[in-house]
Write a structure and sequence with these properties.
By secondary structure, this protein is of the alpha+beta class. 51% of the residues lie in helices and 17% in strands.
Length: 258
Amino acid sequence: MNKAEFNNYLKELGLTQVEAAMLLSVSSRTVRRWAENPEEIPGPVEQALCAWLNLHHLGLSWRPDSVSFITEDAEQIALHRRHTIDLDSLLQKVKDRGGPAAPWEVDLERNCATLGPLHVSFYSLKSGSFSPSFYHRSDDIPHDIDRDWQLIEDAFACIANAISTYKYRIYHANDKALFPLTKEQVKHEYQNLDTALHLFSKDKKLSYDTKVVDEGVIISLGKFNSQQKADEFVEQFQKWLKEKSSSGFFPAVQKVEA
């Protein structure tokens, strides 16, 4: 990795040198030295940066959750860094053999993937990524994780793809917009959404209210009481979120007409 590549990695990931130091568990001084002399960058650091950028390009979360980041929880940050490297390696392995042998059906609400009698469950992480939970078969064939491992890797790739292609969809009508989220997603994502709305409304000098309902999060647009105004809000918020998504904190958005 040369000097330009290192700086471009940080730029594309939206990282300052201070943030990079925290996520790589080194001092800011060390990152400054790497920026000037990238030949000193150790292999594991380059591996982490490459993994983060690959996951970023796939639309997958690569940062630790905001709590770990804000409180500088070194242990959790290191564990998450290892997780992103392992996930990137697995996805590349599946890609190199031509992709999954068969398409697993992924249910993001139930946190499971199914292929015939094979079932893989996973945990949704606060960061927006996932962690495997357990694997089982519902037929009479004995469990053999070694025998089925390639299929299980395919399941992980399908789960990652399902998460990366899931976008916050904005349904809108009159003076309201709806972000359809499950209860579990609301628990983990509402704070990010509310923070995004707060920053967006401050930038644009807009007023809004949010309300959690069974279908997700309702955004009331205050004085905007026409379809045209709602459309403008959705378009502006979509564009703003897309710009901010490069930081890893806010998701991309896909507009869906009601």
